[in-house]
Amino acid sequence: MEIAKQRTLLFLIADTGAGHRSAANAIYTALKLLSQEEQEAWLGSPNAEQHSSELTTATATLALGQAPTPVQSKTPPLTYRVEIVDVFEEYSRFPLREAVKLYGPTIRYNPKLFGEVFHISNREETIATMNTLAAPLIHNGLLRLITSVQPDVIISIHPLINRAAIKAIRTLDLPIPFITVVTDLVSIHQSWYEAGADGYIVPTEEAKRLYLTRGLDASKVRMLGMPIDPKFTRPTASKEELRQRFHLRHDLPVVLLVGGGDGAGGLQTAVRAISQARLPVQLLVVTGRNRRLYAHLQRTRASLHVPATIFGFVQNMPELMYAADVIVTKAGPGTISEALSCHLPIVLSGYVPGQEEGNVDYVVKNNVGVMAYDSLELVDALRRLIRPGSPELRQQVANAQRICRPYASFEIAKCILSYLPKPEEVSIWQSTRWQRRQQKISGRLRSAIRLRRFRRRLPRTLLNSPLMRRLSHLRIQGLSNRRPT
Known about the structure:
six-stranded parallel β-sheet; Rossmann fold; 21 helices
């Protein structure tokens, strides 16, 4: 039997919040399911169409209005190796590595400051300056990453990586496709749309319009939706069965409160407001990784005036969403997209200034939810939605069904696979072109490592002198501008 060829996909992320890794994992899971279906169809497995617990390619293509194509080739389908790498944590240097870690504390303790930084940095001049300062702290790390993983396609799921990654690929002078998957719905930072990528995948029409206003190639952008975990496409039990599983009453509406992976978004304030208003509801509260909040709500649960079940970090979010009637959450793009896929009306309890401002407009303009700016508005919004026969709830459910894209991860995965070399083609890393480049690139990296070791032995006063700064600048310029011949 002929051995299947393997292709390598490299996802570049940064763990600034949980959303970028979640998006990468969602696409990775979709890739695995697509590959599994291809393998079983090629082998003629009787289980090819009998995955009760996983969505198969055939199911996905039918859901997208396409007919599955029978596999007739004698050549085994490609297999895929996927690497998901936090670039700043693993391949950047001080102080860039530590600066990126400020994202979480900033949005938690001073979101207004983050919003100001977002808007100030959302200019081409500022982006260029930031990348000039960051380049010497990440360029060689990216070269080491790419040459060690040897990917056939590179996918960026973080805006701050794009310019540096494109520059590293140009330094290698190899035709490695570079694709950007945008994971913000509306408020798109300009660094997402870095010129030089081979493809741009965006989640909304608003994001596509913003791309086109940048004057970039219209043929390179695809509006495919927000990547969410494929488990949101699997069949679930009925609402009644799910409520029985979670020991919920059948005579009270269910409100799901979610604060994201870190349990932020004013969860405690929302629970207190609903309790004090004595709304005729029952609560499912997901505190994520916020152990302190989880412990506090467990201690005070008995004193609440509404029934409440408290969860920490969960793996069964689709079941919780399908069991609920309304969701209360901050305006994170992932949670919004997941709620829409479950046709769940949304009450937004907060947002990150700058980055998530457009998400509020997206929810309100599409009439799939409302924004509650304080506790009174939160309680009023819930009262309107839980009213028996609420026309507002019915309309929001219908609108969510209309705009949701639960199969986005499969569409994105198939789009990414289209950039890979054809099965009969040789990977660039096995080509003579790479063999010619390899020695020179390796020499550059060895020189950079030797120079860093030498600099550690020099006195600090000499390192900080104008002469050394000028030499360092010239070296960086040389590494960036030279091309292998």
